Fold this sequence. Notes:
The N and C termini lie far apart (41 Å). 26% of the residues are buried. The chain is globular. The protein contains ten helices and no strands. The protein has two domains: 3-125, no CATH class; 128-202, no CATH class. The protein has helices spanning 3-11, 17-28, 38-51, 57-67, 81-91, 96-107, 122-131, 138-151, 157-173, 181-202.
Amino acid sequence: MNAADAWKLACGNLSNSESWWEKVIQAYQEPCRHYHNVAFLDRKFKLLDELGTASDMNAVILAIIFQYYEYDPQDRASTNNLAHFQEFASTNDLPQGLRSKVEALLTGNEDDLEKNANGENDVQLLQDLDMSFLGLVSDAFLDIIKLERKEYDFMSDEAYNAMRRKALQTFLLIPNIFLTNVCRDRFEAQARANIEAEVQSLGK
């Protein structure tokens, strides 16, 4: 399942589906998006389909789409993707139950979300999908971190490396990078190996 397939699954019957899909594609094709682009969405939806653990597939699909609908690496705090989703929901008369679930996913509110048999919810799954690149084989991981670096080309190497090192070292301090069992089993060991190798490459 790629991004177009996922959109049709979740939104195919909505009145303004086509016009909003055009907006989504336009947003994810902005020049600053070397990593957070349509290929990024395709990779996430392929993994989502493979895992098959979403409690509400349509809600997770919409959360993935709108999570980075607006993206500015220079000012992440200025983006308001919840508002973009709410505009989409209103113009398409999205059912209130689905709307509430997507809003919970975008805000990280786990209280009202159902859990699967392992006691996990879709907020945790959404976070794991976002972090899954950390657990790719080393060559693929190196390709992605090069793309991520391009999105921060406004930063000097010294500043970027310091920021990156701090974030990576934080991952190494926590007991589990991944929150769901299926992603932990699949990605945790490789993610830690990738992170340790990158931290060493960044130096002190």
